[in-house]
UniProtKB/TrEMBL annotation:
Species this chain originates from: Paenibacillus ferrarius
The protein's name in its UniProt record: 2-dehydropantoate 2-reductase
One Pfam family it belongs to: ApbA_C
Record's keyword annotation contains Iron: no
Catalytic activity: (R)-pantoate + NADP(+) = 2-dehydropantoate + NADPH + H(+)
Amino acid sequence: MRIMIVGAGSLGLLYAAKLAALCEHITVIARTREQAEELTARGIALIGADKEKRNGNNASITFNYYIEEAEFTGSLKQSYDYLFLMVKQPSITEKLVAYVKAQMNESTYLVSFQNGIGHEEMLKSAISPNRLLMAITTEGARREGLTAVAHTGAGTTFLGPLNQEEGLGQLSHILLVELLQKAGFQAEMSNNMDVRIWSKLIINAVINPLTAIMRVQNGELLHSTWSLSLMESLYREALVLAEARAVRLPDTLWNTILDVCAATAKNHSSMLQDILHARTTEIDRINGSLLEMAKSLNLKLPTHQTVYQIVKALE
Ligand code: KPL
């Protein structure tokens, strides 16, 4: 299989390192020339649960970079079966979407891995819905420097079409799921990605801002009654909103949130990583999206409003 991964952050490097030995070819697109050159010189080092740093077999990976400022006019040089879009949600700009589109041919599928909601509209306006898959993952990963990534917690990856009507008829994706499983990821096809996206939105809306504000690893949230009660308030407020929008969430979602904290106990959430590196966070697309939806329904989400304002101040 031939895969392009756009985004050389923690998830992009994790997936590239684990898939390298199983794919005919992988191209990783970094944001800067410096990172692409470092990766070309050193390859990706994967730090496993045992904290050992291993330089994998990167022979099948090439590294390149995307210049955000430049108008993209290049044409497709390689053909890919899948293009994994693994940049943070705020980086999905019209220019990036045009770049991504130019890397696809009529048989390439785009798999979009983001937290939050909102980006799917921009993708849908440029990429045919039958070429678009959404992915939701709870894998925990932390980038260390430009070329190393620590796998800080095993999670699950769900993939599926954006529109339920497209169903699971696309048997070809079974090969992708099997490939991910062979690489060591727990992966599944899903035909209710809307529910998965909402569930992940709530998981992130509960875990990410609190870890960013408290500057703690995900597991720490489980160790104090007051962080647990804040988590519960965030969860309950989000549930009221989901109900008002007739989104049917699994009854087990609260336990899933606790399980994600435990499974990624040593992880710095992506929002904490952004705050620590003075980057824009995804708060607008996570708690901010919930607040926008609540406003249009005349609902109040006071705990979300508070964490939103604190994270904005930290940004
Ligand atoms: O998705 C995550 C994130 O950090 O954005 C979790 C699952 C919370 C893992 O840290």
